[in-house]
Amino acid sequence: MVGGNGGNHGIESTAEVPWSTGLFSCHENLKNALLTAVFPCVTFGQIAEIVDEGETNSAKAGFICCMTANIPCWGKLKGCKYRTKLRRKFNLVEEPLRDSLSHVLCPLCSLCQEFRELQNRGLDPSLGWEEARLVAQNKIPPVNQTMYK
């Protein structure tokens, strides 16, 4: 935490940052909004794979989501878990609702917002972890690049 030690330089701030899009801004990515409306488990699986940095397979996470969709609260709790992981990973503010309420009251909007957040941070969930990571790495300019005539 930055604060009262006077000369501490190089310490990262713990200030939370806002989400790049609003909870109800599904219109900003209509393709994802439509996919999520029809197949929310696909979007959930894609998000889980990126948030877990490839340790979770999107197809497996999506399948488990579908198989447990009728178990009261299980899917919502799983969605809440990944929203919290994503939020902590990028130090995002828990708003406009708490993570649990977001997935209970607005599960589809929550999934769409999480998807857009990852896309806006250069990690497109629709690509899968390996390809999204490679694309994100290629967006970073090479270090010590020189020009020759």
Overview of the molecule:
- There is one protein chain.
- The chain has a domain at 30-122.
- The protein is mostly helical and 149 residues long.
- It is 52% helix and 0% strand.
Q: Would you identify the regions where 5 or more consecutive residues have pLDDT less than 50?
A: 1-11
What is the global morphology? globular
What percent of residues are in strands? under 5%
The total strand number stands at 0
Question: What structural class do helix, strand and pairing data support?
Answer: mainly alpha
Q: Helix tally?
A: 7
* Average pLDDT: 84
Alpha-carbon distance between the termini? 48 Å
What fraction, in percent, of the residue positions are helical?
40-55%
Query: H/E element string?
Result: HHHHHHH
> What is the makeup of the main sheet?
none
The rounded Rg comes to 18 Å
Brief sketch in words of this structure:
This protein has a domain at 30-122. Residues 1-11 have low confidence and may be disordered. The chain has 7 helices and no strands.
Secondary-structure blueprint:
Blueprint: H1 30-38, H2 40-51, H3 58-67, H4 74-89, H5 99-105, H6 107-120, H7 129-138
Protein name: Protein PLANT CADMIUM RESISTANCE 8-like
Pfam families: PLAC8 (PF04749)
Structural descriptors:
mainly alpha; 7 helices; disordered N terminus; 52% helix; 0% strand; PLAC_motif_containing
